Amino acid sequence: MNTELQGIASKYSEAVLDLAVGLKQEEKVLEEIQLVSQVMSSDREMAVLINHPAIDGGEKKRLIQGLFEGKVTELTSNLIGLLCDKRRLNLIPFIEVSFRELLNKRKNIVSASLVCAERLADTQVANIRAQLAEHLGKTLELDVKVDSSLIGGVVLKMGDQVIDGSLSGQLKALEKQLLSV
């Protein structure tokens, strides 16, 4: 992701989150931003409309707000309008990510990814989730994926931390040690 765009998007996200919290609509606004982002990124015609220089900004605003009219709150509609006015519709995916991160931070939620070599039973996942939540002292949002290339074990990713307990990771570390001798 583009760091400059992330920085700009975070300013919009902070402002919208503050307003959403005041209205007690933070979850609803997150869902709506996700919807807008999904529609704008998945529809080719929408991408052409957003990026076409010959289409007037006011016309873009009218069309996009019309598309989401009655489907989003006034706050989200105003965000879309502001982004149209500022020619910043390309920030919506960045705003979605930033808004979710800021909301999770306020709610004391940590997102993590657990990649395992084979499918874990629900009880195993619940046990891992509970132990991590207790260790971190925060609520844990855990995304579990299966990657058979790990051979065995698990890899846990939380933010910029990676804990590699996989067999393939251990083999790579051993290979690195042997090659350095």
Overall spatial form:
elongated
Mean pLDDT: 91
Largest sheet, in brief, is: 4 strands, mixed
Q: Helix amount, in percent?
A: 55-70%
Extended strand count: 4
Q: What percentage of the residues does DSSP assign to strands (E)?
A: 5-15%
- Name of the level-1 CATH class of the largest domain: Mainly Alpha
CATH topology of the largest domain: Peroxidase, domain 1
Order of helices and strands: HHHHHHEHEEEH
- CATH superfamily caption of the largest domain: N-terminal domain of the delta subunit of the F1F0-ATP synthase
Extract low-pLDDT stretches. none
Structural class: alpha+beta
Written description of the protein model:
- With 181 residues, the protein is of the alpha+beta class.
- It folds into two domains: 3-105, Peroxidase, domain 1 (Orthogonal Bundle); 109-179.
- The chain is built from eight helices and four strands.
- It has helices at 3-23, 26-42, 44-51, 57-68, 74-85, 92-106, 122-136, 167-179, and strands at 109-116, 139-146, 154-158, 161-164.
- Helix 2 (26-42) packs antiparallel against helix 6.
- The protein is elongated, with a radius of gyration of 21 Å.
Summarize the structure.
This protein has 181 residues and is an alpha+beta fold.
Features:
alpha+beta; 181 residues; single chain; four-stranded mixed beta sheet; Peroxidase, domain 1
List strands and helices in order, with pairings.
Elements: H1 3-23, H2 26-42, H3 44-51, H4 57-68, H5 74-85, H6 92-106, E1 109-116, H7 122-136, E2 139-146, E3 154-158, E4 161-164, H8 167-179
Helix pairs in contact: 1-6, 2-3, 2-6, 4-5
